[in-house]
Design goal:
Elements (H helix, E strand, L loop, with lengths): L1 E2 L2 H9 L2 H6 L3 E3 L8 H18 L5 E4 L5 H16 L3 E5 L5 H14 L3 E6 L8 H9 L8 E9 L7 H12 L7 E7 L6 H4 L4 E4 L1 H10 L9 E5 L22 E7 L3 E8 L5 H13 L11 H11 L7 H22 L1
Length: 340
């Protein structure tokens, strides 16, 4: 689950070819409420072009989950160009507007690469949702492959029963269609505040990974069908952030982010100021010195972190920090799943 942002595209591009083949991103177009149609069309076309460039050789899903009706109409005009003649698969869902559902299903029928059905469960599973999914799937052309994208949203300490809710949803949804794939996606990355990081190196449990293991250990007959998915190294709400190219300023701090088997590790860095270089290189050294650090050959992320820690090159800014965090996470998760 990745936002269509330069930092996420960078991270995916930095993966080696075998790493990109192992990962099928669900790209999320940012919401642009209130944008006029011509400007919106130009922005969406730019977004789709950015993603299509890195998906030239492997398929991925494209979605606009927060789009208003104007953005849905604009996207509908572009779906043929990028889904029918490209490697992107349209996504719809039971909570989408009739226009969004229809244009997605029609593009899938013309393109032949399939359609994703995204079912969001951000609290308790609603049993009535199964009927809405059944009705939607019934509208899919018989020749079109259908992927189930069970989106559990943010899974933090305030959702201790998320695993049980995911199983309830899967129990109801899996029998509804001959799904080509069924992915379970959840976001375990915490909200990051300056206060959280002021105490030094911070570790937060990977609750999305724990949820996945809970599903695996359920021994349901459909478990072999399932694929793991997560929101990378950003909080689940990051995909809903409104794109504002004219925005100036922002916080003077950020974080380096690293993924271990059971935790996300964070270390505070500075965006500017006289202490930036020293603070940021010290933050990189904290991560490089972890017992779980995988070494500079593990991914482009580890390579950059080691270089930063040793005094090589720049100490980065927001785009670089997020790209480094995401590429090491994607590479590590793909490697972990291959071993299983």
């Amino acid at each position: 689950m990745l936002p269509v942002r330069p930092h996420a595209v960078d991270a995916y591009r930095w993966l080696p070819p075998n790493g990109r083949r192992d990962i099928a991103p669900l790209w999320n177009l940012p919401p642009r409420p209130g944008a006029a149609a011509p400007a919106l069309a130009a922005a969406v076309r730019k977004d789709l072009g950015l993603v299509s460039q890195v998906q030239r050789h492997s398929a991925a899903w494209i979605d606009a989950p927060f789009a208003d009706e104007i953005q849905v109409a604009v996207l509908a005009e572009l779906l043929d160009e990028y889904c029918v003649f490209g490697m992107l698969r349209p996504v719809t869902g039971p909570d989408r507007s009739p226009l969004q559902q229809t244009t997605s299903l029609e593009a899938a029928a013309r393109g032949g690469s399939g359609v994703g059905v995204r079912v969001r469960v951000t609290g308790e599973w609603d049993a009535d949702a199964a009927e809405a999914v059944r009705s939607l799937v019934a509208r899919v052309e018989p020749t079109v492959s259908v992927d189930l994208l069970l989106d559990m949203g943010g899974v933090l300490a305030d959702r201790p029963d998320a695993g049980k809710e995911a199983l309830r949803a899967l129990d109801a949804l899996v029998p509804l269609a001959p799904w080509r794939t069924a992915a379970v996606l959840s976001g375990g990355f915490p909200r990051v505040t300056a206060e959280t990081l002021d105490q030094g190196l911070c570790e937060e449990p990977r609750r999305d990974w724990a949820l996945w293991h809970e599903i695996e250990q359920s021994r349901r007959a459909y478990v072999p069908l399932l694929a793991y998915g997560d929101y990378g190294i950003q909080h689940a709400d990051a995909i809903a952030q409104v794109s504002d190219p004219d925005r100036k300023g922002g916080p003077n701090w950020g974080s380096l982010r690293y993924t271990t088997e059971h935790a996300f590790v964070l270390s505070k860095v500075l965006h500017s100021g006289g202490e930036k270089t020293a603070v940021n290189r010290a933050a990189a050294r904290e991560i490089v010195e972890l017992a779980d650090f995988r070494g500079p050959t593990a991914s482009a992320g580890e390579s950059w972190l080691r270089g930063c820690a040793r005094g090589d090159g720049s100490t980065g800014a927001f785009r670089k920090w997020l790209s480094v965090g995401n590429v090491q996470h994607l590479a590590y998760v793909a490697h972990t799943l291959r071993r299983h």
